[in-house]
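Aim 2, interim progress. The first record below pairs a target sequence with its structure tokens.
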Amino acid sequence: MLAAGVLACLIAARGISTLREPEPDAGQHVIRHMRYTYAELASLDTLLATLQINPFTPAAHTMLADAADHFYVRLQMLSGLSQGPFADDSTELKRLSVELMAGLDALARAGPPLNDRSLSELNDISSKVLRLTGDYTREVEARIDSVLREHARRATGAWTEIITSITLMLILSILSLSLFFRNRRMMDDLRAASARDSLTGLTNRRGFTDWATEREARDENARRRHALLVFDIDHFKAVNDQFGHATGDAMLKAAARSLLADFPDAGLIARWGGDEFVVAVPLSDLSLREIDERLSTRANKPSQVNGPSDARLPIAMSCGVAVWPDDGATIDEALTCADAALYEAKARQRGAHVFFREEMLDRQRLLQEIASGLPAALPRQELFVTYEPRICINRRALVGARAHLRWAHPGLSATLAAGDFMAGAREHGQARAFDSFLLATACETVARWRASIPEQTYVVVGLSACSLRDATLVEEIDRLLARSGLPPEALEIEVADEAALSRSEEVIETLSRLSEHGVRLALSTFGKGNGVLTLLARLRPQVLTINKTLLCESVPGDCRADVAALANMAETLGARTLIEGVATDADLDMARDAACALAEGPGVSPPLTAPDICAFARALRSGASRPARIATPSAT
């Protein structure tokens, strides 16, 4: 509005300035002289024409002399002007006028009678001068008329600008008064809007902070205990990346609706940011046991949202719970505790909920320490690889080894397994670089094994989903195999649930290309779900991994039947069955009885260094010094 007022003032000033401009000079002072000159030339031309009839009388000479005197005065006056055709000696009009004046002067001095031929010549010259004077006069008059019309138009525009500016300033004054009286109400509306999340309609982080500040400011006796529930949507980033932001937004809205439906008695439900939500429940209205029951019910019946092609996507949410002021003196401290419980819930199982305990803060600090050290892990050469032997059960021979990434963390003075830091590496965009290091190291190591022992071993590498979605992975593996002098079958890529269950076409395309190049494939974690079953027909893997949970989650008879069925399915597909996590002789016996071909786990051998793998193979080959866990197969 201020800018509009300034603009109105500038427009008015410009209009006033235009009105104060003097009338432009387009030749007005010259045109008056030219009109008189034209009249005198017309008289002179007529006189010369008349005198030709009777040039011999004294009166004719007198009339000519008078006309010559008048024309001389006029010519002198015109020559003294700063503008016009007589100000420049080079113009034709000036030249002819001077010639006419000279002829008139000569006739006047000659006396009577007048020379008839000279009169005729002078009459021709006067006619030309008359014509040129008329043309010039008309041209100047037209120019003056155009300039004066433009001046009038500008004056009219200036008055229009002044009137418009005055009107605009009046309108702005009225609007300013109106806005002044509406200002308080608008400020109240803005405060309310700033505390509301535009997508879900819930209170946002600022609104929650205002609520928390108001609660903490109350007298200690007036405070009510609150359970603070921090929710996080599981796999939200994957949904956003795979199905688009529209589906992600729909999932956030559905999550907000489900929280409002499940906790109608909550003191406040807020969207904390991203895919995180905070629910504050007064414990005077709802007990911790009732909260636990509601969270369990939510986990068993998750809400759903429509995805592309009308696919129904479940909304699983992990939750961490803390109590204010029991777990934290301030609501902010209690939220930190709830965050720690949320991390614990995610580490246990997606969709779980966990109540805060003091030791969880230590885990959160550990995670922060791990995250801070991730960028320097590769440059400082803190990563290394160990290898878990894989054996053929019937031949008691080493066939390969699974590569495990390890991190010698300097700040923690401890060696971390990949499960302790790869989630953080994925969040910080470093998982792809770590996978490349694991691949390069594993290829170099298996090349040394093949040169040292007769067993044609292979190395098993499990990759992150982000690496399997990378279109350059196939070329990278081809380069590593060529540099190490390895055949493609010396490398086996293991596909775990995270990649397989993503149902990403990029992952399937990468695995198909690797299989076409001769790289071995293994589908992992059978017994934890059936998501990978849909990939069997397309990929034709060499190994199907049966998870160790099948060995301990069923009664022995059922377990043996399940393992045997999977082994038969693998044989039908031309694949071999691997039992992972073998811990006891009984596990190995059951795997052998179920016709499983391969085994690995602590009951076979813990992970070893690269040189120890060769020693392990020699121990198996010698028989006498083989590891105690490897039992002799039956005669059959």
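The second target in this work package is listed in the same format:
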Amino acid sequence: MAIRALNSSLIFDRRILLGLAACVILAFTFAFLYSPDLRPSADWIPPLTSKPAPFFAAPPKNPADPNIVTLDYLAIKPNVSDKVRFYWNIPYAASAAGKNRFRGPQPVNRTYGLGRNEEPLVWSGELGMCPRIQKIDATLRNREDVAGEDVLGINTRITEDCLSLNVFTPVDAEAGDDLPVLVNIPGGGFHLPGRSNGGEMVEKSRRARGVNGKLDKGIVVVTMYYRNGIYGFLSGEEIAKDGDYNMGLRDQRAALEWVQKYIRYFGGNPDHVVTMGTSAGGASVLLQLTANEGDHHYAVPGTGRKQLFHGAIAQSPASPTFFTPPQAEKFWNEVASGLNCTDITCVRSSTPGDLYYENYPMNFPDRGTPPRWMWAPTTEPKGGMFTEPAPAAIMGGRYAKVPTIIGFTSNEGTDQVKKTTDSEGEFKSYLKDHYPLLTDNDLTLLAKTYPNDRHWPDSGKYWDAVAKAQGDIRYICPTYLVSNAMSTHNPSTVPTYQYQWDVMWGVDIENGYGTKHAGTVGQVMVRRQNEISDYFISFVKYLDPNVERTSGTPEWEKLDDRKRRMFFTNIKEGGKRGDGTNMLGKMRMWMQGVDEKREQSCGVVKSLMERLQMSGVEALKID
């Protein structure tokens, strides 16, 4: 069969058609790209998540000592036990002294242990703590305890050059192991530089046979220092114009950013970080959840926006009163006048000793006695990092939606209030000192809500009432309300777990103290295995408290509209606070149903939140 040659005119016609089609496509493409209404955006691109993790190449080990960790600004040699490596006092920011006072943390501006003839850092045994609150009585204060600016913070006891953290790892952790990370934010009422040793928690997190049947090395723990008192929370118009509010909370944020940058070198996983704190540390955990209106991401160069943390544990979190602008100005003026200053430049130029002398608790305007834990955050203007108290933000749904464990003890207020409170008048005065915006009607309502049911030994007649009121106001009710709110606002895949700790030790069952404030911390951070720490360690590893819970303990149900919480107690069945020590027994726990009495009392606290300065606290307006 003969093959007919192609018609040249047909080829020509097809070329013309193809050319015309190409012109049409190009014209449409240019119109699409350059029309303001048609130009494509990047909104359709899925957000960059923390998975898959960026490539990490473990650095070669130091031939002199394989335990030495070398970063781009620091080399450090740990203390080593048979189970844990202790990397103490790693600077995560520059000194907060001098020109850096009342500013957010500044980048580290020097190297440590690097360079020719320099040895890696070795812990000297000094604490390098941020300055703590001094006494109200000026005759009991001093200028000598704080180090001068010429002394390196890691080589002294108390210093403004205190922004350091500690890393505790399993003794066999390797760079790139990607072990779960717990970042513990110490408490101390925003007055004291809490220092916590994470080594014992690292020890008890290890499993010879993990859930996958293989060795589970456990977790990496990070603890930190952050600024307290006037160093971390002084505010006012002068600072607003040339500085930052809430420096202590910003320090914590910088430490979390450091973890994202460097924790892999210690064997930790930056894509699996759980924050934890107790009391003011618990308050800090909640405030970090609500910072930037709940945006808990951090821009990592070459990687994108990553979560700073992926879960949170708040034990007995405090709910501090955010300062109003007049209150903040009163505290600023008190510090400035004590230094014979009128402006921020003068205050920044004061000697470390003179500024330290002004670091003490101050009373609110028109009150004569300072609150027990007076220093607290100040509302930042819109666009700031901390623009509202945590309870208000969480109840409004403005927080980072991550799995959480949140809880309280049964008697948070007994060791936090004035035990000599002897009358209803003293009851009201004590609360007014702490919450100066409360009205007379508010105080009458609180006296009715918290009657004095019992006169305990060695106490004032109204200790029972004021302990219940302050325990609910500062600790229990905000904790109860925010965890319940999380169970409502969280997606169904993001659980929150609530607990109540009703464990009493020795004579505390009979002397009225009961279950004191923050009673769980002594169980969680210590070496001894126990039920609540097993739940917590399981949560740190799996964001689920049940995976590695103690054998025979109940499943911890996630919080929902039934408001069931895990209830821990060592009081024998039928026993109660006020009984003898013979009613103390073995730890028991179960899922407890809703507490109707607490629902009512926390409803009262919720109705007062604006005047308790836990909601709706306005920011300073600057012209």
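The chain has 17 helices and 16 strands. This observation will shape the mutagenesis plan for the next reporting period.
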